Every structure is written in C-alpha cells, then in structure tokens.
Fold this protein.
Amino acid sequence: MRTVAGMRPRARLRCDAVSIIGAINEQVWGRNTWPPPGMGRRWEEIELFAALRDSDDDRLRQEASVSWQAPYVLNPLARMVSRASANLLFGEPATFTPGDQQDSDLLGDLVMANDLDSELMRAALISSSEGEVWGRIVVAPALLDYPIIEWCSGSHVIPHFRGRFVTGATFVTSWQTGNTEVHRLLEHYEPGVIRSQLYRGTRGRIGTEVNLERFGPTEQTPAEVFTGIEAPLVAFIPNSLGVDPTRGVSDYRGLEQRFLALNEAVTVGQQNLKLAGRKRALVDAEYLDVNGQLPDGDDVYVRQDRDSTLGEAGKPLQMIDYSYDSAAVTAWIEHLIDTTLTFAGVAPQSVGRSVDGGAVSGTAMKLKMSHSLMEAAGKGRAFDRGLRRLLKFAAVLDSRPTTEGGFGRRWTAPDSEPTVNRSDGLLRDDKEAAEVLTTLINAEVVSQEEAVRWWNPEWTEDQVRDELARIAGDTPGGTDPAGAGAPGAPAGGTTISTPRPPLNV
C-alpha cells in the first residue's frame, strides 16, 4: 500500500476513519450491491435534475408522458432558472479578505490557481439544479504544486453525517471498461486522512478490490494521504434547506412535470406548425401503390377503402385543410413559463423576460427582484461557510512543509478563515444611488464615512481615510465648489451628489 509521507494522524483520528470505513463496508461491501442502500433513489433524483438543466434529450425522452418519434424539442427554462440563481451569487466575481496572519499573496494565489471566478459559477449551477454541491480539496503534492478545490455533483458522493454535521464523505469516480465491467475509485475523506480504494465490478455490483497501480487512470493515486488536519477536507453546500438537514432542496423540486410539460407543449407546437398550411387528401385505393402511397411517395395522403364515401359523390379525391390554433398553444406555453418561474422564486427579469415595457431604475429593479435576492442571500451564506472552510484548509496545506504532507511554499499558516465578499451582480444606477446617499447624509442618517464605504466596498482602510480627507478639504481638490449651505450640499460644505465612479467595477 502506497502512502504519501506526512504527519500521521493521532489515534483518535484513525478511530474515526476506521468507523467510517466500517460503515461503508457494512452498507456496500457486505452486500456487494451498487448503488449503496439509500443512495440509489437520491442519485436518480439528482441525475433527473441534471438532465433538466443540461437538456439531456435521451434522458428526458424517457421521462416524457408520450412517445415521440419526431424530434423532441427541449426548452432551456430549467437551465435559465439555475443561471439566474448563479448570476445573483457569482455573476460578479467574489473577493476575499485574508484572515489573521494569513498572507494576502497566498490567498490570491489560491484563488487564481483554482480559477474560482468561473468555478464558483459552475458550482452555483450545480447547487441550484441538483439541490447541493460538494467541495473537496485534492491533495497530491507529487502531482500538483498547490491544493485544488474541486466541485462535485452529489450524484457521485456518499455523505457521512452525524446529525446535521458532516463527518466525512466518499467520492466516487466510475469508468465503463467493458460491456458489463465497471471500475470504481472510492476516495474516503476522513478527519486527518484521505483513503483511496479501487473496485472492479458491474453496474449493479461493487465487485472486488483491485490494486490502484494496475489500472491506468488510478496508477498514480496514493492509497493514503495524511493531511494532519483534524477535519475532513470537504464542504457540503446545500442550495436551500428543507426538513432533512442532510439534503439540499433543488430549485426544480416539485417542478419536474412542469418542465417536461413545457417540452411537450413546444414539441406539439412545432409539429402542428409544420402541418399548418399543408393539405391532406382522401383518395380511392386504386390510386395507391402496393405500399399504400401515391406514386410520388408523399406520405401526407391517407388510404381509403374503395367502398368508402368520398365527400362529394363521384369524386375519387378530396382535399382536406389542416387548421392550427397557434395562439392557444402560444398562450399555454407562456402560461407554463410564467407560473414555473413564479413557483421557482425567479423574477422574470432575471431570465430576460420583459414585464414592464420600459426601462426601470436600479432601485425599482431590486424591489421587483426582492424575493429572488432574499433567496440568493440564503444560498450565499451556505456558499460563504463552505468557501471559508475550504480556503483555510487549502492555505494550511499550502504552508506546511512537504515532509508533513504539505506543499512547502513557506507561507504563513492562517489562524482564522478568510472573509468572502459577494455582490448581487445587478447593475447599479449611480445617479439614483448618489441622490439617495446625498439625502441620507443631509438627514444625518448616515455619515460621510458610511457613504464612502458603501460607494466603494472594495476599498482598503487607507483608501477610505484618504477619500474622507479629500472630502473634508485636507487635500487639494477637496473644497466644495458649491459652498456650504448650497441646495443639496451635505453638512460641512461638501457634496457627493456627483461622486466619482467606484474602483474595480
């Protein structure tokens, strides 16, 4: 068994690890079944949600209430719902403030190395659609120069909870290696250690354990990595919480049939539209060939028995017009879209639907999207907790010497978690915001310092102090040209009615 050199866990940690392995053995290996008991239904639900998000034609045809031989038209409304949720969380890249004794350069390196700007958007898409997303730290000093934060679907995770607390998680990677043969890599994230096992089995059987080194994709995967951190290097991030604290609630929960109905409505609409304006004909059998078609092969003709009545007496051919009420179908599709967005808690404006017929101010837009923004705030708190945890663990590993299982980059290990700063991603109406701030300052509801901090949320303390000094006239250019007491001027003879644009927007 290959083990990554590092600080070995204490006995208590190892006991915890053994208990987790024992639980897995009891659930899976003892019965030799796959998926593990209790996971099959959970994974199937997550996979359906993923199919709705990704417009998976094959999977959604299986879920349709009718069989479609013609093209099945998919509507991307589910994906638009998740994109709207993700945009409110990370449409504008998050920023991070180092914790105590944490090197800001180290934190910046970790953020850039892990491409968090784009990866967090992907994680938010997974969380919105599937109900949860799992973050883990990949520790492989022999292969990587820094710890990697990886975001995983819950359909590949066997979680371990004690109450509502995560005590570990097993991440599953599968390869179809034959007609019936499946290889599965199970990576157990436990306090102080990551253990890897490879199994060869079938679709419904876990099979037997095989050597990691004898299978190409896992030949460089160590059997054990001792992290020295007394917690599993994972983060469970629920989209929103329901009654079960071990499950997140998807934005699609309860809307599955509505998404499928929308696909079917659009499909029916397209098929009817193709037929509209075309004529069908009733003809005597003597006009058809042996295959029941007219010689030109046009399959819009319908065969009739020779003795059948053909509309007008004596005429062997009768043309029939096909009528299609497109307005009714369109109205039904619009109804499905609007009600589905309402039930999903998504403002129509966030998916590009216009409901006002004209431009609205930034404040008015936020009021219209207040429900969506409140939902995003709850989701954001879950992401913030997970991100702080993972970034702190990554920084600790990055600062630890290679002889202790770290990456040896000689950074200062943090004593606390970093701070995550997010924006709602909505465009700010600067003119309207300036007017509001001016009114609040004149009414002495907020101070100049509060206004400066709100207007420039990314500024450092030094930048805030410099700006306050400029406003007060302690530096050149700080004198109020309007003079004290001018209309709209705040107390002290200064004004922010036309503040300068914020930094880094």
The CA atoms of residues 384 and 420 lie 6 Å apart. The chain has 13 helices and 15 strands. Residues 428-505 form one domain. The radius of gyration is 31 Å.
